[in-house]
Design a protein that fits this description.
3-stranded mixed sheet; Cytidine Deaminase, domain 2; 2 helices; 73 residues
């Protein structure tokens, strides 16, 4: 995923903030190294356009991982 695709709807709607959410089909919501890298890119890109990233949540089997709860934003 490229930040421009992820941020396009938020920019179009003049959003002040955004929460990213995706699922892991394996059921394990532990973030991969790619998840961590894209989250960092999304946060950096969002700052440039003035949109605050409130969280990035990964959903698994009846569990979730929140970058915000883990102080990773």
């Amino acid at each position: 995923m490229h930040p421009r695709e992820a941020l396009r709807p938020a920019i179009r709607e003049a959003a002040a903030s955004i929460i990213f959410i995706h699922n892991h089909p394996t059921g394990d919501p532990t973030p991969s190294s790619d998840d961590i890298a894209i989250t960092k890119r999304l946060v950096e890109s969002s700052k440039i356009v003035g949109i605050k990233v409130l969280d990035h949540i990964i959903i698994g089997d009846n569990r979730h991982f929140s970058f915000s709860e883990e102080n990773l934003l």
